[in-house]
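Workshop exercise sheet. Pairs work together: one partner reads the sequence aloud, the other fills in the structure field after running the prediction. Swap roles for the next sheet.
Pair: D.N. / O.F.
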Amino acid sequence: MIAAAEQAADAAGAVIRPYFRAGLAADLKGDQTPVTLADREAEQAMRAVLSRHFPEHGILGEEFGLDRPEARLRWVLDPIDGTRAFITGRPIFGTLIGLLDGDTPILGIIDQPVTGERWIGAAGRPTAFRGPFGGRIGCRPCAALFEAELSCTSADMFSPADRPRWQRLSAAARRVSFGGDCYAYGLLALGQIDAIAEADLKIWDWAALAPVIAGAGGSLTDWQGRPLRPDGDGRALALGDKALLAEAIALLA
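Structure field:
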């Protein structure tokens, strides 16, 4: 399954790289998020690889929906997580490939096809990382938020009800940075970021992240500290050091 997921990531990367910084037009979907030809073609390429290897598995993709909904094992695909970064030429997007057993993520890949970085997480195994710029897998110790590097893709994702909760958390952190989408979660697995709090994640945004973070020693939960679920509310809290959990969820309460 890992080998097939890597083949799917390779296929998506081969589609995406020629479009990067090529002035590709973007359309707006019904939820007002952008989508490009690269998103659509990359998902089709991944679906073709995975269907060839596992014709009995389900496949859920951001762009083309769900095939074989009755299957217990389901691939979850986000061809370009961070399309806004992609269309503006910033290499902080990624391709996400997750595998669920029922509702439980058991395999995940974060692939950055331009920089050549790849994170591979699988249940019961340490996360693996390959890339040309160095970096070693392993979340770093950080037992208090006043020492933590906190990240979020954009503060605009928080509703009026959630914004005060985010502000309490960010005020307690050492530093806050914005941007990154899935790439930030990869950096958390490398010990560069300590905490990420977000509020509008769909299943294709987080299914691949959970095994990567767990295999690096961190945690990915909702704002109450519970495992993320496909029918959840979209709020997510990733921590490199699980000792931060009680303090973080108290601030987000």
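Discussion prompt: Residues 37-53 form the longest helix (17 residues). What would you look at next?
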